[in-house]
Amino acid sequence: MKTGSRWRSQVCETEVIVVRAGAGAGDAALTCGGQPLVPVGAERRQLEPLPGLDGGSELGKRYADDAGSVELLVTKAGVGSLGIGTVPLAIKGAKPLPSSD
C-alpha cells in the first residue's frame, strides 16, 4: 500500500485513495465490508459484506485508524464499512481553527 494508490471494494461501489500510509501500514489489510480491497483496474469478485460491517462509507470523508498510520479518502461511496481487517476505521474529524482574538 502506497500513498496515492487507488483501491475499490469487492462488496459495493466504494472507491478510496490512500492519503497516508505510515510506518507499519504496509502490512495492513485494507477491507470494505470485511472483504479485501483490490487496486482500481484489477478484476474483482462480487462478495457479500460480513455481518456488522455494512455501515457504509461517505463520499468525500477521510477515514483513519486510531494510531493514525492509515488514512483513506472516499472517492465513491458504498454500503460497506472501511477497515483494517475486521476493525472498522473511524471518520476523521476536522481540526479546529485557531481563534482570531
Instruction: Provide the residue-averaged pLDDT.
Output: 89
Largest sheet: 6 strands, antiparallel
Q: How many domain units?
A: 1
Secondary structure class reads mainly beta
SSE sequence, one letter per element: EEEEEEEEEE
Task: Characterize the overall form.
Answer: globular
- How large is the radius of gyration? 14 Å
> How much helix is in the residues?
under 10%
The count of β-strands is 10
Percent of sequence in beta strands: 25-35%
- N- and C-termini, Cα separation: 43 Å
* Count of discrete alpha- or pi-helical segments spanning 4 or more residues: 0
Describe the structure in your own words.
This protein is mainly β and 101 residues long. It has one domain. Helices cover 0% and strands 34% of the residues. The chain is built from no helices and ten strands. A hairpin with a 5-residue loop joins strand 6 and strand 7 (70-76). It is globular and about 55 Å long. The mean pLDDT is 89.
From the structure above, extract its key features.
101 residues, mainly beta, 0% helix, globular
Provide a compact summary of the structure:
This protein is mainly beta.
How are the secondary structure elements laid out?
Blueprint lengths: L5 E3 L6 E7 L8 E3 L2 E2 L1 E2 L22 E3 L5 E7 L5 E3 L2 E2 L1 E2 L10
Antiparallel strand pairs: 1-2, 1-5, 2-7, 3-4, 3-8, 6-7, 6-10, 8-9
